[in-house]
Every structure is written in C-alpha cells, then in structure tokens.
Fold:
Amino acid sequence: MRWSCTRCFSSLQPKPSGNLQPTNAINNHRETILLYRALLRQCTYLPDPAAQEYMRSHIVERFRAYQPFTRDRKGRLVRQKIKKQDPSKALKGARKGLKYLQRANDGHMPHLQTILDMTYGRVGKRCRQLMAKLQAPASLIDAPLVTLPAEPAPENPVPKRKVPRLSDELQALLNSQAKQDSSRFQGAPVKAVQPNVPPVNSWGRPFPQNRKANFIRKWYATTMERLMPPLGASEWERLRGLASGEIRWDGPVPRRRLGTTAAEIVEAGESSNRPLAMYTHVPHRLTSSTARIVEKGRHRDTNTNPHELTPRLMRGMWSRVFQKCPRLDWSDEKGKWVVTWGRMGKQADLVFDAQKEIPNGMFDGVDEDGKVLSKIAESQS
Structure:
C-alpha cells in the first residue's frame, strides 16, 4: 500500500532545473499521499460494509491509473500507460471526493444515498458493468430488430447495416420495468419496449436501411441508459434483509481520533497550507461538517443537514435502493425469464390477489365514493 501511495503522481511531477527546489512538486506529492490515506480512512467509516469495499476498490483503481508501473499476475513490475491529466485537476477531484465521503459519513442523506446507489449498481460504473453482462450475448446481427414492411427489391441492393439486438434477459427486464412505477427510478422512465420506426418519411417515401438502423441504434442507446440492471441472488437477498431489518445493523463505525495537543491544533489553524494541515493535525471531530453546523449553522457548501445514523434511517435508505433492484431468474415451469422487484417498506404485506375474494367487512363504514359514513346513516341502513 505504501508503494502505491508514493508513486501515484510521480510521473506527473515537474523535474527540478539547476539548484531550484521543486516546491510545488513536493507539496503535490505530500498532499497526494495524505489525500489517498484520508480517502481510504473515510471509506472505513461508511455504514454499509459493501459500500466500504466498493468505494475502497474504486479509489485504489483511480489512483493507480497515474502510476508509471504496475504489477502483472506474476508479481513483476511492468510499465503501463499513464492517464494524462493535470495534477492540480486530479488533486481537486480528490478533494471533492473526500468532502463527499465526509458528508456521507456525517449523515447527509443525499450524499449517502448516492454512494449506496453506486455500490449496488444503480448509477455509475458498476451499473454499466452489470448491464454489459446482459448485453454480451446480444451481439450485432445483420437483420433489423423489428419486422419492417416488405419493400420491392432494388436492382443494386445495398447491404444492411448491423443493428443491436436485445437478448431474452434484456427483453424480459425491459417489459417488466415498463410496467413499474416510474417514480422509484432516476431520470426519464422507460416508455417504448420496441423501437418506433416510421414506415415513411415526411415526403411519403420509405426510409433507407441506413436510416432505419440509426432509429434502432438511438432507441437502444436511450433504453440501456434507463434500464436498472439485475443483482445476483445472494446480493439481492442480503439487501432485502438489510431493508427489512432481518439482518441486524451493527451501527456506525467508531471514529479513530488522532493524538494531537491543543498547541498543534492552534498551529494547524494558523498554517498557510490549511488543507494539508487539516489532514495531518486536526482531528475529524473538529473539522467535520457536523461540528461546523453546530457552531455556525448550515454549511455553505451543502443544502442539507446531517442526520444521526440510526437503524431506522438506514433501513429506509436501503429500502429506497432495494425497490430499484430487480432479480432475474429462469422459470422452468413458465419457460421464460421472471423478473422480481424489491418492495419498499411493508408494501408486500399490503398487496393481495385481486382474483381472490375480497374479505368480508373490508369496506364497511364507507359509501361507494369511499367517504366515511356517519353513525346515523349506518344505523338507518
């Protein structure tokens, strides 16, 4: 870990010329190490163990993209292509990520909800990785996805362009999500389960094959952005247990305090390099957004207030993620893929089969419009 920390920006640091000291390079090098350690430390404070592991691997992967060397499967050092980016911009992004993690650990619900969505593949990189697994069997084909009206064969036929095709898993997931309540998902809802290719253009002429292929590609790309990828059976069951309370939550991770004195804290506050001193000397309890809000009110960088991370609050946040997570299983009886969606709260207990008989007395005390009847009207009836 120490080797990966000290070399993450080594290839991007300017070389000294003459007897001049590379002050900026040294400061960037030191701040990079401190930011890397601070980010990994904040990952250990996240209330979800799965979020801790995912964010840690994400941070390590982002920092290793700047290393000039990496290790292969046999443990040998090999040179790799370095991500070309200004070190100051990369450090700025790391500082923003550190603030985001701090606010999530302090109880800011939008920040923590986004991290949970990233962990379980509702947004971000993991969402695209889960969707790629379903798209792999659906390779490009020569025939269009939809049945187009028959056209007379031209004398010099133009070869058809390849268009993407939905696999059986994606088609079942698309049909199921189109029937769900769109308010539970981010962004625009899924409306069309098939591409809408008009038969003729505005001049009343049939579209060429290239134009039809472009219609299908555009619909496919838009649909893939709105679909929610399914989770594995074990991960889906674990998230269901956390949302329902069957799996006990151990509570927030206790913070590790740094051994500092009052003189060091005052000296760090008067330092010219405030961010660097904050990571090394000032404890988290004196720099957290919660402490600033207690002293000065709501923090200027965020529009939300921190909440105490209680089991009830965490069950609500896991439930909001769970209702956006489908599960895809193959049914031998039906001979097709079956999609199961998570339910939020006690919705599963409130749902009954409409084909069965309605229990007697279920609607006693209300009229046909659903209004409550008075006692006099009930006695007269």
Remarks:
- The chain has a mean pLDDT of 75.
- Residues 97 and 214 are 38 Å apart (CA to CA).
- The two ends are 79 Å apart (CA to CA).
- The longest strand covers residues 326-331.
